[in-house]
Amino acid sequence: MRGMVSERDLVAVESFEGFYRRAWHEVHRAVAVGVGNVDLANEAVDEAMVRAYERWGEVSGLENPEGWVYRVAMNWARSWLRRLRHRSNLELPEIGVDDPDVVDPRVMSAVHRLTYRHREVVVARYVLGMSEAEMADALGVPKGTVKSRLHRALEVLKEELV
Amino acid sequence: MSLDERVRSTLESAADRVQGHPAGIEVIMRRGLRRRHSRRAGWVVAAAVLVVGFVVLAIPLAPRVDLASARTPVEILADRVVTPEEWEAAGAAVIQCLTDQGMDAEFDADKGAFTVYGADPDTRLDECYGAYMGESVQKVWSDQQADPVAEFELYRSVVECTESRTGVDYGDMTQDSLGFVSTEAHRTINRAFNEAPEVYNSCFDDLTLDADSSMGTIVEEVVSDSQGDARYSVGLGPNQELCAQAGYGFHSQSACGGADIEAVVFQGDGVVALAGYAPSPVAGLTLVFNGDLRRPLQLIPIPGREMYAFGAIETVEVDYVEIEVVDGNGDIIQRFFPSIGSANN
Lengths: 162, 345
Description:
The structure holds 2 protein chains of 2 kinds. Chain A is mainly α. In chain A, 74% of the residues lie in helices and 0% in strands. In chain A, helix 1 (7-35) crosses helix 4 and helix 4 crosses helix 7 (132-139). The radius of gyration of chain A is 17 Å and the shape is globular. The radius of gyration of chain B is 24 Å and the shape is globular. The longest helix of chain B has 28 residues, at 25-52. In chain B, helix 4 (84-100) packs across helix 5 (121-132) and helix 8 (183-195) packs across helix 9 (197-213). In chain B, strands 11-12-8-7-15 form a 5-stranded mixed beta sheet, with no helix packed on it. In chain B, strands 3-4-5-6 form a 4-stranded antiparallel beta sheet, with no helix packed on it. Chain B is an alpha+beta fold. The two termini of chain B are 38 Å apart. At the A-B interface, helix 1, helix 2, helix 4, helix 5 and helix 6 of A face helix 1, helix 2, strand 2 and helix 5 of B.
């Protein structure tokens, strides 16, 4: 395989390798909390990383390539879940809801009840530590949209938890 | 502890307990390279044809999906059977629809998953997916919804009517290559609605009055707020077929002519409207929003038929809606997932 790769590709391969090793687990834990399932998050992040590698020239130039992978993984998982729900009664177990070592299971339940878009920004903020500008860039939406989604998500959580 | 700290510490503790199993860098790169090289091979072949010129016959590349021959969601869902070829063709049609809007997208036929890049990917995917693959077991869509030309003509008439009553030119009404209302036309419609909402709504009502007046309405409700009207209705269509319609603002969707349970859902600005009908052996229905928020649905007997009508308007933003069908013992015998139309662009 190495014989088919140009020198420029070799440099790109090595920088992607570093990114992959550094970012995979960080993004995976966020996607797992966001979609509520570890195995689905596994597949989603693997797929997103393949796409990142395909487009590495472009993705490596982004300010926040981890955010790009997060968005692609969440979108992929969402469309997979959409199809799954229309085809079966399969219930996916939810991360953290029945886990005694999670700080506040009520919070986990409330987060799982958020809409997908709200969950996406809450996880990006609190698990990936993204700023609003980084989220806007990663999710491909205006900063105002991020602000209003985050605000609305926190209002919903407040109503449920306080 | 503040809410902010509670959420942060909880999500971090949950995330810390996640154990992932990555495929491995070699697997990822092999898959990525394989896809890259298959694309490059296509370009190399095309370039060779150009260079060599007219002597070499053009090497057939994968044919573009003939969108006209892809079965519509109405046809696919009517018999609930999709061949692998139809599945791939429908997926390709969704990709083409997204590409036509300037998006970059991919379809994993095995997993039925789309990945979309570009501005506002969720909304674009919802639109294209709804147009070419359908979202639910909904059997028959209204003639208007399945016919882009009829839909375009309706909106063109509404804009013309609004312009004639206000004396204002809101812009051009054009169709895209698939016959749907074009992006430019959407801007015209929005301009007319935003600048003269009462005139627009009056024109819309006048132009759809004929269709509505032929319906014997069984149940309907309209809830108005500062943003617009949410509404639902169940009644009889021109051929005495049952029709359920749910909408927000000047958008709606409907389902007609079914003999089994049917439901349509439409949401806009945090309000959801739902309408449907079900055959009489059904003892009870429960509406479930986003897997958790539950509402019992009142079943209204439809005179002369062994069917019930139902409808609801709720203030909630939904990702998905489920209807649980229960029998006389209160046991869930079926779960139904209607598609969700959205006025939020």
